[in-house]
């Protein structure tokens, strides 16, 4: 499996994901000319478009992409997604070439946010495209959902994936996310190591599920040190910590 990030807009990522024969799907191709040009350079044969959620900086290129690649299926879970042809259900599986894809409903950032978990049937490689639900070192804002939903999406749904699953998120927010992580979890060596690594890596994807569990505070809501830093009692629930983390992150200026 070959996954190619395509930087779009100011800090978005679209992706091209290919199997060993070059059969591919694209994820959130908000700037179709950039993605199509990269696909041509890769000699990738695009067979599908996957959309993580309806926000225009992710789905806004769908109509133009479909016009450029007629009859391409467009997968997503929200009726607000432009050019949607295939409405996926939670846990539904489908295949693109040798790539086996499972849709994972992760509502909170939007009510229709979905992550796409991919396994390569030939190589066994695993990846998940998380849109604006899980970022490297952070998570998306709770625009249409609750702390309880994000807690489930991150620490039940995504955390249950194998630790070696590569994480491809929707934005390059890693440096700012890690500044906040260092603020709420200052003694964590994983945060410091990742921040140091970022200094010499402009593109910080992919991460992995296992690594996110080590340094992403939103996947460490049960940690006593984080609770203390937030001024919460040790008895605070995971949902309470999730809500407090998001509130603190929204106000954080670093």
From TrEMBL:
The entry's keywords: Hydrolase, Metal-binding, Zinc
Catalytic activities: an S-(2-hydroxyacyl)glutathione + H2O = a 2-hydroxy carboxylate + glutathione + H(+)
CDD domains found in the cross-reference section: hydroxyacylglutathione_hydrolase_MBL-fold (cd07723)
GO biological processes: methylglyoxal catabolic process to D-lactate via S-lactoyl-glutathione
Superkingdom of the organism of origin: Eukaryota
Residues in Metallo-beta-lactamase domain copies: 11-171
GO MF, any single term: metal ion binding
Top enzyme class: hydrolase
InterPro entries: Clx_II_MBL (IPR035680), HAGH_C (IPR032282), Hydroxyacylglutathione_Hdrlase (IPR017782), Metallo-B-lactamas (IPR001279), RibonucZ/Hydroxyglut_hydro (IPR036866)
Gene3D superfamilies: Ribonuclease Z/Hydroxyacylglutathione hydrolase-like
A UniProt-annotated Pfam family: HAGH_C
Cofactor: Zn(2+)
EC number(s) per entry: 3.1.2.6
Protein family per UniProt: Belongs to the metallo-beta-lactamase superfamily. Glyoxalase II family.
Protein's UniProt name: hydroxyacylglutathione hydrolase
